[in-house]
Amino acid sequence: MTDRTTGPGSGPDRKPDSGPSTPGRSASGPSTPGPARPTARLRPTARRRPGAPRVPVTLLLPALLGLAFLILPLVGLLVRAPWSGLSEQLTSTAVWDALRLSLVCATAATAVSLVLGVPLAWLLARTELPGRRVIRALVTLPLVLPPVVGGVALLLVLGRRGIVGSWLDSAFGITLPFTTTGVVIAEAFVAMPFLVISVEGALRAADPRYEEAAATLGASRLTAFRRVTLPLIAPGIAAGAVLAWARALGEFGATITFAGNFPGRTQTMPLAVYLAMESDPEAAIALSLVLLVVSVAVLVGLRDRWMSTP
To answer: How many other C-beta atoms can be found within 10 angstroms of the C-beta atom of residue 78?
Structure first.
């Protein structure tokens, strides 16, 4: 007889095995062989504080001083403005002549900038012109050139004894300095770079494949430019025209040097402000308020273009 050892795993109470056993696996579930690995603890992520980040005092103080430096003069202009007699100041003959002349000359200068500046911007953006960098630097030179120097340069070229002005005077009897036309020329000289830069940027951002597709369909370069390119860059042209108009409206140095300061003929609003500061400060403040309103209107009109992201 063979002795049978009874135990908890034998006898009638023994449960049949569910299957072959594998090392490291028990009936209750899988288990990892060997020593148990410690569970990795997750580091709590740093929580961001709601709201704007804290500004260091070393940056906040000069920033507030700079803001005050830019805003306080404008606040002083508004505080000291003769609000009670503002309508009377703006309806006077001298002020109205300066306003009318400024608006007419600034609009004419903007038109000249559009006619000459848009093709120039296309030339700089779409062609591989030799010396293009030098040409672009010369185009943008009036932006950094002192306006009085620009007026002197115009006088030496277009004056009655200038390089071109002497020929115009002798051949056609045309005199440009100290005339209303001279005001338009001086304003266009300082305002056109703003339009050229804006339009050139719009041309570089526009996809040239649309022009190439128009060319494959039989359109000429001029037709593609008129029917395809201009609608694409219309916002850039509008923004550049507004900037050029505002710059022409506020031009002083080149105008007084090349065109003079004759009431009703060459005296624009900036020149009227300069002249009125000596005799009628209230009229100077009234004209300054008009220029301030125009500048704010320009900024509001271009806000969407400046603040939008591509």
So the answer is: 12
Nearest to 289, CA basis, from 303, 267, 272: 272
Using a 10 angstrom Cβ sphere, with 0-12 exposed, 13-18 middle and 19 or more buried, the burial of residue 148 is middle
Closest CA to 178 of 145, 149, 151: 151
Residue 228's φ and ψ, nearest 5 degrees, are -115, -50
**Rounded distance between C-alpha atoms, residue 158 and residue 167, angstroms:** 9
Provide Rg for the chain, Cα atoms: 38
Which residues 6+ apart lie within 8 Å of 286 measured at CB?
81, 82, 86, 89, 90, 95
How far, in Å, CA of 242 to CA of 251, rounded?
Answer: 14
| Single-letter code of the amino acid located at 123 | L
Using pLDDT thresholds of 50, 70 and 90, give the confidence band for residue 25.
Answer: very low
CA angle centred on 266, ends 156 and 280, rounded to 5°: 125
- In the numeric block, the tokens 């569910």 are attached to 18
Which pair of structure tokens corresponds to residue 261? 């300061």
CA torsion through residues 95, 98, 99, 100, sign: positive
- Residue 310, amino acid: P
Residue that the structure tokens 């403005």 belong to: 81
Its pTM stands at 0.74
Reported as type and span, the H/E element at residue 199 is helix 180-205
More confident residue, 264 or 191: 191
Q: At what angle do helices 234-249 and 93-126 cross, to 10 degrees?
A: 140
Query: Rounded to 5 degrees, what angle do the CA atoms 143, 121, 302 make?
Result: 65
For range 248-267, the mean pLDDT: 91
Q: Is the pLDDT of residue 105 over 70?
A: yes
pLDDT of residue 21 exceeding 70, the answer is no
**pLDDT tens-digit map of 49-90:** 555 577 787 888 999 999 999 999 889 888 888 888 777 777
Beta bridge partners of 25: 30
Question: Which residues lie across from 29 on neighbouring strands?
Answer: 26
List residues bridging with 30 in a β-sheet: 25
